[in-house]
Design a protein that fits this description.
The chain is built from 9 helices and 3 strands. By secondary structure, the protein is mostly helical. A hairpin with a 3-residue loop joins β2 (about 55-60) and β3. α4 crosses α7 (about 140-165), α4 (about 70-95) packs antiparallel against α9 and α5 runs antiparallel to α6 (about 120-135). The longest helix is centred in the last third of the chain and has 24 residues, at about 140-165. The chain is globular, with a radius of gyration of 18 Å. GO terms for molecular function: DNA binding; DNA-binding transcription factor activity. Keywords: DNA-binding, Transcription, Transcription regulation. This is Transcriptional regulatory protein.
Length: about 210
């Protein structure tokens, strides 16, 4: 029998939190999870520490790992970083994007549109992150890209909340489409402005959803 790897455990726990299988406030008990998955508790501990770094859980003294709630402060922390880092990545990456890169970006964009139309919440956040990262792929800023990848993973459940509560979920599709078109034309300053507006718009929607 094959036992799950550390990456398998991490991905499964992350997805369970994003999907709402572990709601905010749920205590994730290391030994119980280890027994459930048939693995050494050290693997669970490693996964929980990574989820803590991603902001999906909090490690509390005397309690252990608890699934984080979505707060205004957490949203602002994540989105402030996105507004700083993502336009910088876009500015560096766009001149190096090839026709093949744009074909891949367009494919992801159309898959995102289809997921929204089908209310496929399991795909919304993942495709949103995949689209953004596909645009930044040639930025040659590996540390910034790793940070943004982590922020977008954290944003997965935010994206689902935003798209499921906003009165106009098609706005994300339109903004993505505009962003892609500007990148194709090499209008980098305009693309950075649209990207910043897009990120701040998601932030505003999330604040409204929590009101």
């Amino acid at each position: 029998m094959l036992h799950p790897s550390a990456a398998d455990i991490l991905n499964e726990l992350r997805q369970a939190i994003i999907d709402g299988a572990f709601p905010a406030g749920t205590e994730l008990r290391q030994n119980a999870l280890a027994e459930r998955h048939g693995v050494d508790p050290a693997l669970i501990r490693s996964a929980l520490l990574q989820l803590d770094a991603e902001g999906l859980v909090r490690i509390l003294p005397g309690i252990g790992a608890v699934v984080s709630s979505i707060s205004r402060e957490e949203i602002d922390d994540v989105f402030d970083l996105r507004v700083i880092l993502e336009p910088r990545l876009l500015r560096r990456a766009v001149p190096a994007l090839t026709a093949a890169d744009f074909a891949r970006i367009e494919t992801i964009h159309h898959l995102f549109i289809g997921a929204v139309a089908a209310s496929d919440m399991a795909r919304w956040g993942a495709l949103n992150a995949e689209l953004h990262l596909a645009i930044y792929t040639h930025a040659r800023l590996p540390r910034s890209l790793r940070i943004v990848t982590g922020l977008l993973q954290t944003c997965d459940r935010y994206t689902r909340l935003q798209l499921s509560t906003t009165p106009s979920p098609g706005r994300a599709e339109r903004e993505h489409g505009t962003l892609i078109a500007l990148c194709r034309r090499g209008e980098i300053d305009a693309a950075c402005r649209v990207l910043t507006t897009h990120i701040d718009g998601v932030r505003a929607d999330l604040h409204a959803a929590l009101a």
